[in-house]
Amino acid sequence: MQSSVIGRMFRKFWVLMVALAIVGLGAAALVSAIMTPVYTSETKLFVSVQTTAAATPSDLVQGNNFAAQKTAAYLEIVPSERVLGPVIDQLGLDETTAELAQRVSATTEPQSVVITIAANADTATAAADLAEAVSDTFSEVVTNELELPVGGGISPVRIEVLESATLAEEPSSPNLLLNLALGGFIGLVAGVVAALVLVLLDKRVRGAREAEQISGRAVLGGLQADRISSRGQLVVYENPVGASAEAYRALRTNLEFVARHGNKKVFLVTSSREGEGKTTTAANLALTMARNGSRVVVVDADLRSPGIAARLGVPSARGLSEVLAGALDAGDALLRSPHDQVTVLPAGERPDNPAELLGSERMSTLIAALAAAFDVVIIDSPAALPVTDAAVLSGQVDGTIVVAAAGRVKQSELASTLEVLRNIQAPVAGVVVTMLPRRGPDSQVYGAATAVRSDETVATPHG
After folding, report:
1. What is the architecture of the domain spanning 39-163?
2. Where does the protein end up (predicted)?
3. Which residues contact 72 (CB under 8 A, 6 or more apart)?
4. What pLDDT is stored for residue 455 in this prediction?
5. Is 362 exposed, middle or buried (0-12, 13-18, 19+ CB in 10 A)?
């Protein structure tokens, strides 16, 4: 199992695991509280063979071996009706010999001549009385009945009490500490299993590793969410020395490396679904590239829900829609952003036929003209799966940047987006993973880009 899966399981579901462990402790405590206490008392008996004063050492050895053999056989006699029947009568017990046998046990060690008889009862006194009664009756049955010579005389077996039954100070059951440990352990195991199942059933993209596996290439960059970008603001402008701004500079470097291999200048930024941070990524990427000396133009091609022009501080009353409709010259539609000399082509009025406009010959001509006039063209488009706008535009650019929000987009959705682009043979520049966690294995980006850890509060970026 990958360390990222284990780390995610403990990071995300540690509360569940602790809660189930506490539930296990509580259940164990409750069961222990309602259980009837059981007290155990023991007696120890010594089994030997009668000897005479004239016995030789060899006779003693043989007698000891005989006693050891008998001791093992006597264990079956203790729970028998012949022993327990008189005990029931003696103590006035209201139970059968089979039921009483469940509360009495007899044990011995290999080659030992000592028998330990244990008796359980609901009080310490009852347990001691039962152990003593069983011990006395057993000794009587063995010496005066079972081992009594047929012709009369003295029994060759002698049974003596080594230890009499004593009153137990504490009940032997329930064992509160053992029950608590067992209950807590079972609860914790249940929590771990439940957390693991939930993690394995979660098919969302959690980090760069899943994005790389789906796309088949190293990600372009990894961006951790912070307070500024979560509000749709420009993190590279508001906090240019912060960790998030550094992550965008790493993304810029990786994209410039991709652009140099093939003289690529026009990039489309899209995502699988709304709310993954594509517009925020496009705006901050444009500012980062402009600060590096590139002449950058940003085109708001999200004609259904425009927003990047407002992010960059320019009005969106007229723009791309009017240019594509032939009602406005492209030069008159371009506006200069107050942030780092980025040029913006706003979306303009929302048209009735955005996909048709974006796929028109005028759009292709406009992209070519912008590519000739600027070093970098960044086009912000709608999400790829709900509508066809991004697919229409992807065939007219040098590369498509697919933004994938960790913890939000499903792996199947990202795979579907990339499959749509492959089916129309659209060039894919790479995947940028946003909303990465600040800690744990999922916060890291391997391969082409390096995710930078942010000390700012994690929140959800706007689309």
Report:
1. 2-Layer Sandwich (3.30)
2. Cell inner membrane
3. 108
4. 34
5. middle
